[in-house]
Fold each of these.
Amino acid sequence: MSSPAPPPPRGRPVLLTGLASAALLDGRGDLELAREMRGAPTEWGGVFGQCVRLTGPWRLELGADGRATSLPGSLLTESSTPGGWRSEHAWEGFRVTQDLAAVSELPGVVRTLRCERSQGPPRSLTIRSSFAPWLLPVLVEGIRPHRFRFERRADELRVRQRGFGLALRSNVPARAVRVDGEPRAEERWAGPAAEVVTEHELAVAPGRPADIRFLLSGGLDRDLDGARSAATSVIADPAASTRSVASADLAWEAATPVLRFPDAPELERAYGLARAGLRRLYSAPGDGLTGLVAGYPWYSALWCRDIAWMLPAVLWLGDVDWARRTIDSVLRFRSQSSVPILGGEPGELPMQISPGPIFFYGTSDTTLYYPALVAAWRRHAGLELPADWSEPLRSMLGWGERRTDPATGLLRNGGEAEAISTATQALARVRYGIDAPDTTIWDSTDRRDHAIDVQVLWWQALRAGAETLGDRGERPYRELADRLAETIRSRYRWEAEGYAFDSIRAGAPVERVRPNALRAVSAGLLPPEDGRKLVRRAARDDLTTAWGVRTLSSRDPGYAPEAYHDGQVWPIATAWAAEAALAVGDVDLGFAYLGTIARQLNGEPGCAHECYRGDRPVPFDACFLLGFSVAPFLATLFERVWGISVDAAGPTVSLAPRFPPTWRSASLERLRVGSGTVGLDWAPARTRVTWSGPGTLDLRGGPAPVRILPGGVAEVPLSADGQAS
Amino acid sequence: MGARHLGNLLSLVRQGLTVDVEFGTRSIEALVWVAESVEEGVYASGSLARSADALRFALDNPPLRVGAFSTLRVYVDGRPVAADLVTFRPGVDAAWRSAASVSADRTFDLAPGTRTEFELKGSYGSSGNPLTVRLELRTASVPPLVWFEFTETPATAGPGP
């Protein structure tokens, strides 16, 4: 038997997900994952279900004849498997194969140890499972409850904390249960618990492998009883459960577009990795909620702003049904009244939603994304606006109007956290808060009162309102949008810097160079020459580094390389820069930015870090996978590189590809447009377009509109710079 | 009960009813689970104790945010306590440290589930009366100030460490 290999370095994240579950581990055998967070080491390994962190680290120990080893201490190999992860271990003549998966039948994680001996007498192997119960939604990222209620049943151990609960079951009954070292034999008890241990005995004889299986599941305590049947099935056949996760992933991927970039294989590979990353964030955690979690490990909840950045990519990947259900889930929690303790105002959409349901409001921007998303969904689906979306859409726009300065048309951002703090003061025995005066996408810095990207969002929301609801009645959305556009062009122009002001506060411009101004370029709000100047300015080395775009210029007095929103490099900001560069026709620069993101995705397979230090390309205070870091990159490939816009109601597809002048070919297959799919095969002299139907497809972008019959093919002359040749 | 407190309670009732009507009773229940978990999860209730020359208390979890804190300030009844009078130890096996030693280079690291004990040298308030203790912390990575305060009547404790 070979000797155990030296354990791999701690910290390489392995993420396994089902639609309501996640397992986080470091690839050494146990569910433990120490990560730097906010500058300090924090343990994030464990089991997550229904957006609730069920456990801290969950470890299995092997014991025989008075000796014991951890799984990491006996590791031989580890590898990803379809739908799961496998590790192989050797110790004291035992060979142990562990299979691990986050299951889809219920919120939980299943572990199977197949234990074998090749020779010698039969021996007893003790498996000791230990975990730290947690049982709090991830939205409260830094708190682990201390007191729990326990119930020992014939087939499982239940642990509860208020309305949250977990169940641990095994096919090999526990011979002992200990909590914090104390044996527990009673049926029910309550008290503090830092470590819950169960011991199981397995007889292992040569040629007769013995399996022990564990299922740790949970989330909402009230759902545990309803999941008993599913739990019984999973523990009986974990491999079927793992296959189910794998086949769902494969079916999803098989329905998404295939992009080929023969002149940039690294970009093509990055597309596949980003798409796979986005899939891992898909979530249907229960309580009728559908969406995508923001990221792992510490944003594994449904954050509605983050969802808004992911849904355009979901639509381009053809999953209009998931997008619709996600928008439905968010709109369901639109506040209809003023609820200051939750930060909600009429028409406002929530910042976060979780099963419970648990939801909070209090951002300046989340609501503003959704009118444009509703319009985008309609264009991709080719369907009428769902009847129950019209009224929410109007009330969202009404929320924006109430925050708008009638004199300038500018929307006010900031003040939400202070309002919540004021509302909750004197209501509780303890009081707490974070003095963040502003809650835009960069919510740890103060960008009051009129941050430029918030104005762009508001303009997009108003335009979407006009497109979707029309300009009837008392809400001339287009007129409001036009006035706002004029204000943005006239009041944010920063002539001396060749840039745009970051915000306007108390009537005065805020002179800070941030990437957020690039959003005005991508939206087409600035005159072309101003847009080009702004893009070139952003490309200077105080904002753009070799590993991406900073949240604030390094020349700014407030710059700090480790500050989340005042200096760190964010891939989403890099994607904004790519999009803006391609929007103004600076193809080389746009591809340089995309290349930066592609290098990160390729260099960190399975990861897409949230952010990096501003002074060196090291992830810092970063989730290892974030929707922000994959979805805008994906959407840019469709919207700016291929230059595609769709209106599936026609159906109509417009094309304006922008490829580097050295490229000789590119192709795209299986782009869903309504009920049909489009294929594109580009070469410098022409683009070949195929259409599966039904009905005819109107194609725009060439010298003249082209109509393609179902199953038909057309060739149109399109150059690489988005122009008809 | 003062008019302000009554107003707050009535406002809370009104908002609770609003959530109930718009989103159902389960929402209120679940929101209370979270609020109670935070309220009871951070300050170790009953840990505030007064000895002849110091005040002591403990936190069971970080106040809202984890991480490496570069500043730590403590107030008692609104008055700042000099950093050299504040000592703490994160975890029962850790050594006591002075708040004056906390800086960007020597951070105060707070992890979930780890009990941190504090001792404030000096005399605070008068026996039998409640005290309000406030902590203010700041990380370099996410700069906005994190604050946490509780009000409790100190128990009587023996000599400190």
Note: Residues 3-23 of chain B form the longest helix (21 residues).
Amino acid sequence: MQNTYLSGGAMTPFGRHSGVMAPELAQRAILDAMRDAGVEPRDIQAIYCANVLGGMILGQLIVRDLDFAGIPVYNVENACASGATAVHLARHALMAGQYDTVLVIGIEQLTALGGGTIPLQRNDHKTDLYARSGMVLPAVYAMRGTRFLHERGAKPEDLAEVAVKNRYNGTLNPYAQQRTPTTVEEVLASRMIASPLTLLQCCPSQVDGAAALVLSSRKPDRPTPVRVLSSVVVSGIREQADDDILDAEITARAARQAYEQAGVSPSDVDVVELHDAFTIAELLYYEALGLAAPGDAVPLLRSGATALGGRVPVNPSGGLLAKGHPLGATGVAQMVELLWQLEGRAEGRQVEGARIGLTQCTGGGIAGVDHAASSVHLLGV
Amino acid sequence: LSRRAAATKLGPIDSNKDGPRTRNSMSKETGATSVPNKAPNSAPHTSTAALWSGSQPARLLTSRHIGTGERVFPPVASHSPLAAFFESVDLSGIGSLYSFTMIHPSPKSGLAPYALGYVDFAGCDGPVRLFGRLHGHAADGPRIGDRYEAVADDELGYTFRATSPTTTTTTTTTTTDNR
């Protein structure tokens, strides 16, 4: 099978980029990624641009003033999984031999929207009706949190520990928006948003950022070429009356397929970047990704296995909780982080000897499915 | 195996053999209402009257798939191309609270906290889980397993009112909608 390599990658710091428009923000990541890969515009044959809320034909807007000479630009939207979906589609084209080198961009500018919870898109009767009663994504995750505390005998402190871990990692990452450490007490004392989730358990919504990757079927001339071992995108299945909301079914399904494609098992994974939009999500995804047996998420966290220096560090970048979550950029940025980790250049937060990494992002608020889309990638050297 | 369990256990190929997918939608669509909606791509609001049966007492309506027995809410719209696969079934009885959250709106909004939850309804017509606003619970908040019934609400269409014995109750919070 044709290999897909990450020839180079880059991202902007995630944070408030006031007054910066989409082209300037994304071009910075693009130029840095191409420099990292050692390619020129003439080497790129197609561009995949992931974005959610930035408007039509954003990719073409971003590259208008670069020298790509009219190559195809595909604009990709899959909510929070947009960036990962763009990588997935780019890989399809490389595997089919349509192109041999492509550029993937993820970009989002949320500060321009004024902050707060992003409302559900109300173009469906069920979503409209549920949104009217108050359904937003924090509420969906919060109800998982309530049920988790109820079923697992877990405590709010267990949720808070996820924020403490990831915000600590963020202090080590110059690309993260939140760079101050926090404590369990501070997390629990922060303003309640949707019980049991307090403010510091929710990823920042006032954030802009861009990330870019050069993908190629040509093996890059690098000491430890990083390749895509597997790439999966799946969609949510309509909820049933007896669904277990702690099951994270869509992500478990994506992960199972990704492990199978790659021929690796969860115990082979050295480092993980997962979709910790809220603290409860990280605990549920430990189990969905097979890092912990069902019911063992809290013991895994408490053991320190997922902290930097542990057996399988999760979100060494700080994750969405510390890095911020510019929707379209997130999936690409997760893979940029793993590129750095697997090449041994994640300065200050390096997972020593990491050879296999996993990224996971899940997103999209539609009433009646747990999430619209989930994507899991396994990368390896 | 349920359709979802089949997808989980058998993988992506077999999961596609479950026949035509159905979608949920409501039975009537109206144009403008007085409810403000600043969401991008906002759709016209759905009539809340179409959610309830004309019987006495009025019952919240669900649809049940004629082939599989799966119940969906809100009821499938009469103009839906899927309508022929569904029959209308009243929601009756008392449901059990599966999970919930108390939403605390930004202090700047001036809105009071309110409760949201999933309520599971069982019974001979088949199980169905509904999401909605909760009220009438104990002052210290809802608890998983509390019992709720659906009641009409002019603005939201329906809410769930606690029927569990409680010593002190909150007042309805439907006027503090989070928009």
Note: The longest helix of chain A spans residues 22-37.
